[in-house]
Amino acid sequence: MKGLKSMEDELVDLVNENDEIVGKVFRSKAYAENKLASLRAVWFLIKNQEGKLWIPRRQAHKKSSPNCLDGSAVGIVTSGETYEQSMIREVAEELNLNVVEMSYRSLGKLNPKQHGTISFVQAYELQVPNNFIIDYNKNDFSEFYWLSPQEILQKFEDGEKMRNTLAIIIRHFYN
Q: Does the predicted TM-score (pTM) go above 0.90?
């Protein structure tokens, strides 16, 4: 839409090794200058009663990680947002789901230095019934799978295209 900034032009906070805000930069500049390790991100995973995670495949037209398996909803925290506010926004945008009144939980935080993630990551999880329907944004994702943590890691070992942070999160929180 005319007048709206693209996602790449969003203002994001830069953080130091302690996840403390030390500046602001436009998202496109952070990517261009390879400052991803100084950004904050949220990862949201949906888990059913069988312990399987809802894992979508990103659309081919995506600039970042096209055709890769991804977390249920993932995004960069914009300037002025908390991790939780960002997660709520991303879940609404990507999954058409309002989690404000739902019982999601924090899995914890990971960082580039200790865990090898691309950026600082706050991970969340939502437990759902097996028949839960997800009305995902077709512009973001082309398909999805319900996979066990072991199946995700096997796909990673087999060379399936996925974000590396997905495998790190699975190993850290589900193994």
A: yes
User: How confident is the model over 128-171, as pLDDT tens digits?
Assistant: 999 999 999 999 999 999 999 999 999 999 999 999 999 999 99
Nearby residues of 128 by Cβ (< 8 Å), 6 or more positions away: 46, 47, 48, 49
Strand partners, 14: 23
Q: Are 42 and 90 in contact (CB under 8 A)?
A: yes
Look at the domain 8-129+137-174 and name its fold.
Nucleoside Triphosphate Pyrophosphohydrolase (3.90.79)
* CA pair distance 152, 171, nearest whole angstrom: 10
Query: Between the CA of residue 64 and those of 57, 61, 117, 166, what are the distances in Å?
Result: 12, 9, 15, 14
For 10, list phi and psi in degrees, rounded to 5.
Answer: -65, 145
Measure the CA–CA gap between 73 and 56, rounded to whole angstroms: 9
Residue 4 pLDDT greater than 80, yes or no: no
Amino acid at 155: K
Query: In a 3-state reduction of DSSP, which class is residue 26?
Result: strand
Where along the chain do its domains lie? 8-129+137-174
